[in-house]
Amino acid sequence: MEASTRSRLWSRCKSRATAYYRALTRDFNYSTDFFFGQDFLLAIAGARLNSTNVRIRRWWNAYRLVSCLPMAVVFWNTFDAVRHCAKLEILLSCVQAVIGIGISALRMTLILRHYDSLMAVLRYVNRRKNRVQRKLELEPGNSRQHDLMKKRFFWKFVQEEFGDCVKLHIEFLALLNRIRPFLNATFLIVYYSTVLSLASGAIYVSQMKSITLFTVATLYFCFWVSFECASLTRAVSILTESHESIGWEVYNLDWHEKLEWDDQYRDEYRSVRATMLNVMTVAQQPLRLNCFGFFEFTQDRFYELLNMAYSMFTFFRKFV
């Protein structure tokens, strides 16, 4: 009797878990190569749930309320430390936790506000475009006919190739213009929050006489915020270099040998030359990922961040 009851209970739990899994799989998008599980991560963070299932939303709302309890504990500890005039390293550790929560909430708000733009970028980077390899098979004929056919195919395909490249470049720049406010705001928040986190974390750890679990957690947090900032600055540097390299790649083509003037193809010649000049001109324009004009968010800026964090650490160190 007990065995049958356990079996029915297990089957019921298994069927319920399977139903929830199917509902989540139907609502979330796990099949992308980039932005993997973005909707899933937003649901875990308690920010957004793309589900119309009433029961799932009810459990999710309860989960959101429970996830707010650690935040309340952090704010209470900070208030209690300020009220009792705790040591500076304790206050800085509390402030670091409050800053982390505030920055996470602010960045989550930015993600939700620019959610449609992020989805547009997702569709762009996950798009698959099948390119058919063109194979020219010249028909039998004399050398003069071969030369004429080669010229005709050359001017035809060079315009198509440049047209495809220009189209992709324009689409990329349009998406970048759409997502730039979100990126600049995120980069600005990440930069200065990393400075504060590293400085306050270093002060707290330097005052600890023994290694505790909270010390390890502080080091872990400082490592990941600095790793995130370094990764973002490196990604921006790579993107900037790739954008600038487009113009140089076009400039380094053997166009002075291939693009020869021919009265028969003078319109094609002028069109290709104009397209090349436009591509090189656009590629020289900056991407303006500069935190709303404050500074260029590149890898060199990350090294300045470390110097700024160290300067802040030495400044607060005098008051400890």
TrEMBL record:
Any Pfam family the entry gives: 7tm_6
InterPro entries: 7tm6_olfct_rcpt
Organism per entry: Culex quinquefasciatus (Southern house mosquito)
Record localization: Cell membrane
GO BP terms, alphabetized: signal transduction
Descriptive protein name: Odorant receptor 7a
An example Gene Ontology CC term for this record: plasma membrane
Gene Ontology MF terms: odorant binding; olfactory receptor activity
Record's keyword annotation contains Cell membrane: yes
